[in-house]
Design brief:
Elements: E1 2-6, H1 10-22, E2 26-30, H2 33-41, E3 47-51, H3 59-68, E4 75-79, H4 84-92, E5 97-100, H5 105-118, E6 128-129, E7 132-135, E8 140-143, E9 146-149, H6 152-163, E10 169-170, H7 171-179, H8 187-203, E11 208-213, E12 217-222
Parallel strand pairs: 1-2, 1-3, 3-4, 4-5
Antiparallel strand pairs: 6-7, 7-8, 8-9, 10-12, 11-12
The structure holds calcium ion.
Amino acid sequence: MRILVVEDEIGLAEAIGAVLRKEKYEVDISNDGQSGLENALTDVYDCIILDIMLPKMNGLDVLTYLRVKNIETPILLLTAKSEVDDRIKGLDCGADDYLTKPFSMGELLARIRAMLRRKGIFTDINPKFLDITLDMKRGELICNENSVLLGRKEFQMMELLISNAGKIVTKEMFVKKIWGYDDDSEYNNVEVYISFLRKKLALIHSTVQIKTRRSIGYCLDGAK
Ligand code: CA
């Protein structure tokens, strides 16, 4: 799960980033509207946290532009108490929710989860597929009484595979969601991490297999 934070108060942006990373989200931070827009246009994010008052381009303009460009990423607006009109304008322009500053990090996380849930984006606390469970808090892959710790990339790849169970996850999708940019040299990494994950599935004696689908990508399946 990859989140973009567009916030010009550096301290706040970093604090939000730290909390989100602790919750196992990948986070990119932009400190002005223009770079926020450029990042958001790549369409790799599952959610965007967007401040309204921003240098270079204001949050409402960023939001409007994204919706015109058919970028439908869920957007949570951050507003100051005095910006009531902007808040209403924001919802009219296609924001999904707003949060008034100051807010608690707990509330921010709850709003993000609610927003993703409404959008039908996978937010199961501990995603499961057949005999495996991904423990989000401990970062472990579990099968019956066996468990193994996953590295950060392995964890994100397994999360993506489980949330797309039954469908092919392309190499491009892994690279975009996890590495965050499109670069041929990254495709080899996907193969390396898939081989690590296969070893770990075997280690915990799971019947789940990661099948290669031609050269397109990978798909979770039970052993036949
Ligand atoms: Ca601001």
